[in-house]
Design goal:
19% strand, elongated, binds adenosine-5'-triphosphate, Prot_kinase_dom, 6-stranded antiparallel beta sheet, 307 residues, 2 domains, transmembrane, ATP binding, kinase, membrane, 3-stranded antiparallel beta sheet, 8 helices, alpha+beta
């Protein structure tokens, strides 16, 4: 059997033309590969950028495209994600593909490593706000993991791989074992917003304590996989400790809804950033100096501009 990972990436500049819609796309580079296809950055004659997923199994790919179409339909307020669905012929073979909005950005784990873990506050809030829209439209994302949460400039967050989304109340279609609440004996695999809250908590554990998390999965026997084991890691990490309450609620499914999870996240971040002891506070004389420096620099800029 051929899987997408067996396939060599197509060379830069490969052109694919849709058999039915006739649109032409020029492949630029491989963005990533999944179990049932490869995703390329591509451009059209207008130079606009797209993400094109070329599949192996047309039924699988069609299923993903149907979900994307249905999401675009239920979430009318945002720009469409699915842009084209077609077949092409490559090396004499029929290859199904679909075209999506291109999401620039890097996986959240890499972003926090490069820019610093203090970005967790903003990124977490934006992720929960995006999930809240999705949940209100009746969908659960399901496969939340670092590769599917892309972060762009200034901590802008977008989800990719909506092909794994499930309607609320159905079985979760696609998940990654270590992010799955069923794996951690913390609930079922029936899609509800709490399923995504749990995976968001695992996202932070994976991003900030990846090694210990993986080690835990290797050493715990299945009967002992439990949120309390995850909470031990949370309590021993200085960035996660102030979010202890939030993490516990996410791991045990105790938020009323995603708006509640988002509100409580914001509050936990706000409290964690408050100076705790008098020693942490900026002394009045230093604040005064800083204020004076800002006034002076603003005045200098104003004078310079008016010259
Ligand atoms: N619209 C997009 N814009 C930018 N990058 C994308 C886009 N869609 C997918 N990618 C990149 O391609 C990778 C592969 O995407 P794909 O949808 O095949 O899913 P996957 O989650 O990696 O695999 P699987 O669905 O088999 O678990 C993603 O992890 C992401 O890095």
């Amino acid at each position: 059997m051929t899987t997408s990972s067996d396939r060599q990436p197509l060379p830069k500049g490969t052109e694919i033309r849709g058999k039915w819609n006739g649109k032409l796309y020029r492949l630029d580079r491989l963005l990533g590969r999944g179990s049932n296809g490869q995703v390329y950055l591509a451009s059209s004659s207008t130079k606009a950028k797209f993400a094109v997923k070329l599949g192996i199994e047309s039924a699988e790919l069609q299923g993903e495209a149907n979900i994307l179409a249905s999401l675009d339909h239920t979430e009318k307020g945002r720009s469409p994600f699915l842009l084209d669905v077609d077949d092409t012929v490559l090396e004499g073979k029929n290859v199904p593909f679909y075209v999506m909005k291109y999401i620039p950005g890097i996986p959240v784990k890499a972003y926090l490593r490069e820019r610093g873990s203090h970005w967790i506050g903003v990124i977490g809030y934006r992720l929960l706000e995006r999930l809240s829209q999705l949940h209100e439209a009746g969908w659960v994302f399901g496969d939340i993991k670092s590769d599917n949460v892309l972060v762009g400039e200034y901590g802008r967050v977008e989800l990719v791989d909506y092909g794994g989304a499930s309607s609320i109340g159905r079985s979760v279609r696609q998940f990654t074992e270590i992010y799955d609440r069923g794996y951690w004996s913390a609930g079922s695999r029936i899609a509800d917003p709490a399923y995504d809250h749990f995976a968001v908590a695992l996202l932070w554990l994976h991003a900030l304590e990846g090694k210990r998390l993986i080690q835990l999965t290797k050493t715990l026997i299945p009967q002992n996989r439990h949120p309390r084991e995850l909470m031990k890691i949370v309590r021993s990490n200085s960035r996660l400790l102030p979010l202890e309450n939030w993490m516990e609620k996410a791991l045990t499914g105790r938020f009323e809804n995603t708006q509640d999870a988002s509100k409580q996240w914001r509050e936990a971040i706000r409290v964690s950033q408050k100076p705790k002891s008098p020693d942490d506070r900026v002394p009045a004389w230093m604040a005064g100096l800083l204020g004076a420096a800002i006034v002076i620099s603003l005045s200098i800029t104003a004078i310079w501009l008016l010259q």
